[in-house]
Amino acid sequence: MTEVVLQADGLTKRYGRRVALADCTLDIPPGRVVGLVGPNGAGKTTLLQLAVGMLTPTAGRITVLGGRPGDGPAQLAKVGFVAQDAPTYANLSVKDHLRFGARTNPSWDQALADARIAELGLDPSQKAGRLSGGQRAQLALTMAVAKRPELLILDEPVASLDPIARREFMRGLMAHTAEHRSSVILSSHLVSDLERVCDYVIVLTDSRVRVAGDIDELMGSHYRLTGARRDAADLPAGAEAIEHSHTERQSTFIVRSLVPVEDPSLTVEQLTLEDLVLAYLSRSVAAHRPELETAR
């Protein structure tokens, strides 16, 4: 097994003066279900399109499963990709899609594709243009997993789906990853979707990676501290303030600390994944406030 599924070093993508991704450095281990989370425009799609070879870097480098993204049929066969709009061909039937997949993918698993279509209750003769949004997303996922890829990349595949269709899609993804133990990178701005399936998370804001790692390790090193009003400089040694808020008498901090926080004057609480992600997103917003105030 490849030691690193995706490795990026100083990866940067620019469009003229606009920076879509800046100085991205990552080492994603194999066998993980990775949640890539951030607001719209953060650079998530850019990173994933670089990973599948749809874009080329402006600077830095990226390797996927030990090779250059999109570099020939063998490399393409290793990666399954579902884009944000779950692309299907409106005039082709479900069965036509599976035939196309079988002709274009040397490791195509017809039994897996047929089993998923039957389980989903899709009519093989139905044209994709007549399917619901949720059914098209499921068909796109079937096309991706039936390739038997080593890495499955999903770019906000449920963003446009209603809650029921989104739940069914995520359920199908969980079943696939549990059975086949594929590596998965799933982009979303919905943390609730990621909590159910992911064991590794990357937070991306303003075109930069803010934090990345095993969810259990991150949850074990981030805390909410509450106590009498104080400055961040007065926090216990080793505690890095990620987010803070103050009232007249009380301060609340989200901190990262590699050692347990022991201070009897502070109430120490564990975070949810949503708490952790929102703290890093808020930190990014706060960093831009002085610029916004100046602009006004």
Automatic annotation (TrEMBL):
Molecular functions per Gene Ontology: ATP binding; ATP hydrolysis activity
TM spans (from-to): none
Keywords (A to Z) from UniProt: ATP-binding, Nucleotide-binding, Transport
Alphabetized PROSITE patterns for the sequence: ABC_TRANSPORTER_2
Gene3D superfamilies: P-loop containing nucleotide triphosphate hydrolases (3.40.50.300)
SMART domains on file: AAA (SM00382)
Record carries keyword Electron transport: no
Matching Pfam families: ABC_tran
UniProt keyword annotation of ATP-binding present: yes
Residue ranges constituting the ABC transporter domain according to the UniProt record: 6-231
UniProt family annotation: Belongs to the ABC transporter superfamily.
Protein known as: ABC-2 type transport system ATP-binding protein
Organism: Asanoa ishikariensis
Lineage, top ranks: Bacteria, Bacillati, Actinomycetota, Actinomycetes, Micromonosporales
